[in-house]
From TrEMBL, chain A:
The keyword Protein biosynthesis does not apply. InterPro entries: MetI-like, MetI-like_sf, UgpAE/MalFG_permease. This is Sugar ABC transporter permease. The keyword Cell membrane applies.
TrEMBL record, chain B:
Keywords: Cell membrane, Membrane, Sugar transport, Transmembrane, Transmembrane helix, Transport. The keyword Protein transport does not apply. Belongs to the binding-protein-dependent transport system permease family. MalFG subfamily. The keyword Cell membrane applies. This is Carbohydrate ABC transporter permease. It is found in: Cell membrane. It comes from Nocardioides jiangxiensis. The chain crosses the membrane at residues 21-42, 76-102, 114-136, 148-168, 249-268.
Length: 335, 283
């Protein structure tokens, strides 16, 4: 972006062109100047790192081979530096083939986990959120109190609720196992099995995410004109028919947005998996984002492998979003 | 959470009971983890780790005293405040004008800019964290708060733009036209007319950005090395290593983190959702 907003004058004046053309030119210039700083920041903070990340995924960059030179102290105390013989180099698609064939990492396991995790979370978020919103949208006493209390989990930072639920799911003294025992059931070693550990993580994330969905859908419900319901009632429809033919279509714009955002957020949800299961048992509940993070920052830091995971995650999300958008378009949604 | 009197005339008593039963169950589930952590934070260590369910067990403020005076918790807290505050200020001031332009003007390239902002929402921490880390390392910024602020801005700027655009959409464009007739240019219109009207929107966006930075952990764990520079998310983790976790410290710390966040949240939540969804629904 060349035109910064400070360079105000000097762009337009010149020979005065009258009419609409000039006005639109003016407006476009202002618009671009207003958007420019943000674009610039995004370029520096997002696009440039992104390009670097993509490039890194074609190298074998790790913690140990990142230096261009190896320096060693000589006897006198000075340093002598020689080019690093083991310096990182280009490996082409090597990382991708390794990951996708399962040579290194557990891409397919993590992908499976991610899909289960995302579908379960978003489905439960949406259904529970919709249910609660429909209930709250009626008229009864205490409604605003319920509403405020139900929003509480949203105010809790994700890592705090991760620790809180880890505490509740603690096999030895956690509340959940205590309740199970009091009900005459066996306590569960939550983090020793893949699916019980996944269950614990999903429960945490559902708890955390339902309030947002609920409030968003509630907003959507309140924007549906009540005449539609009155007309439907005149026609002698059942409550279920009204729900299917008035409520759900009326919620479409809100639903499509929150489901898309929810999917993206859940797909990339780092703290819950990282803190609640920590990948236990033996990395079987890792999702793609946490797997990539561990590749980058745990053990021998394999930056290139982590970048490769990152590129694959982004590719999956972009394809998903594009498909989603196309599906909406084909149904006549403008979004 | 008191039981409410039975519902109104148009509902049968049975439906009313069902309604309240559903809501009471949901409310209990929503509140219980928080309440339970709070209760646990008041118990001495051995009582926390007992398998018996007891609401109270020798309540004491000892855990809080230890967290506040015997750990680095206060400095983590301060670090989080500083990082979140700067992220918020930078995020808002950068994105307000962009949000306005996207809301008001139809200019070539607008759709692609909108898409750019949406796609950056999709960027997983996984793809940006390594390159940003290497850039920070080259700049010598690892283990500084500045590195976190910069990293968080990569999320905050597109998010704030998206949200603020939604707010500006709700301010009638006729006001702008009137201001233009009075001879104000777009920048002045924005500054003197629209910005004051958008104050609630700005406040909520600012607040939400603050909370996002407040709750971030991935960058915080990767970028910060020394104990005194940690933020809350990364610091709290130190209380619960895989072996010998100190739940007494953790529960007290968790309550101290939740408290201020929930308070502010309570005042902001009404406007929050309108903004979040407005950006998306009015394509």
């Amino acid at each position: 972006m060349s035109a910064s907003s400070a360079a105000g004058p000097g762009v337009t004046p010149g020979p005065v062109r009258r009419g609409r053309l000039r006005r639109t030119l003016d407006r476009h210039w202002y618009a671009w100047a207003m958007v420019a700083p943000t674009i610039f920041v995004l370029g520096a903070l997002v696009l440039y790192p992104l390009v670097r990340g993509v490039l890194q995924s074609f190298t074998n960059l790790t913690e140990t081979n990142q230096r261009a030179e190896v320096c060693s102290k000589t006897l006198g105390g000075a340093q002598s530096c020689t080019p690093n013989p083991d310096r990182w180099h280009w490996v082409g698609l090597h990382n991708y083939t390794d990951l996708l064939t399962g040579e290194r990492g557990h891409f397919w396991l993590l992908l499976g986990n991610t899909v289960v995790w995302t579908v379960a979370c978003v489905l439960l978020h949406y259904l529970i959120g919709l249910g609660l919103a429909v209930v709250l949208n009626r008229n009864f006493r205490g409604r605003s109190l319920y509403r405020v209390l139900l929003i509480v989990p949203w105010a809790v930072p994700a890592f705090v609720s991760a620790f809180a639920w880890k505490f509740l799911f603690n096999p030895k003294f956690g509340l959940i196992n205590s309740i199970l025992v009091n009900l005459g059931l066996d306590p569960v070693e939550w983090f020793n099995h893949r699916w019980t550990a996944m269950f614990a993580a999903v429960a945490t994330n559902v708890w955390l995410g339902v309030p947002f969905m609920m409030v968003a859908i509630l907003g959507g419900l309140q924007s549906i004109p009540s005449e539609l319901y009155e007309a439907a009632e005149m026609d002698g429809t059942s409550p279920w028919q009204r729900f299917r033919h008035v409520t759900l279509p009326g919620l479409r714009p809100v639903s499509s947005t929150v489901i898309l955002l929810g999917t993206i957020w859940t797909f990339n949800m780092f703290p819950i998996i990282y803190f609640v299961t920590g990948g236990q048992p033996a990395g079987e509940t890792e999702i793609l984002v946490t797997g990539s993070y561990r590749a980058a920052f745990e053990g021998l830091r394999n930056y290139s492998l982590a970048a490769t995971y990152g590129v694959l995650i982004l590719a999956l999300l972009v394809v998903y979003a594009a498909a989603y958008r196309r599906a909406l378009k084909s149904k006549g949604e403008v979004w | 959470m008191t039981r409410k009197p039975r519902g109104r005339d148009q509902r049968s008593p049975l439906a009313s009971i069902g309604l309240h039963a559903t809501l009471l169950t949901a409310t209990t589930i929503a509140l219980f983890p928080v309440v339970w952590v709070f209760l646990a934070s008041l118990k001495p260590q051995d009582a926390i780790q007992s398998s018996e369910i007891r609401l109270f067990d020798h309540p004491t403020l000892e855990n809080y005293r230890r967290v506040l005076f015997e750990t680095s918790f206060p400095s983590w807290f301060l670090n989080s405040v500083v990082v979140a505050f700067f992220t918020m200020v930078i995020g808002i001031s950068m994105s307000a004008t962009a949000g306005y332009a996207l809301s008001r003007f139809n200019f070539p390239g607008k759709r692609s800019v909108m898409w750019l902002f949406l796609i950056t929402q999709m960027f997983p921490v996984a793809i940006l964290i390594v390159p940003i880390y290497t850039i920070m390392a080259n700049l010598g910024l690892i283990d500084t708060k500045a590195s976190l602020v910069i990293a968080y801005c990569s999320v905050a700027v597109p998010f704030c733009t998206w949200m603020l655009r939604g707010y500006f959409d709700t301010i009638p464009a006729e006001l702008d036209d009137a201001a233009a007739l009075d001879g104000l240019g777009p920048f002045k219109t924005f500054w003197y007319v629209v910005l004051p009207l958008a104050r609630p929107g700005l406040a909520v966006t600012a607040f939400y950005t603050f909370l996002t930075a407040w709750g971030e952990v991935a960058y915080a764990i990767a970028f910060i090395l020394s104990d005194k520079n940690l933020t809350l998310g990364a610091g709290l983790q130190q209380f619960v290593p895989r072996f010998n976790p100190q739940w007494d410290l953790l529960t007290a710390g968790a309550v101290l983190i939740m408290l201020p966040a929930s308070l502010v949240f309570y005042f902001a939540q009404k406007h929050l959702v309108a903004g979040l969804t407005a950006g998306g629904t009015k394509g």
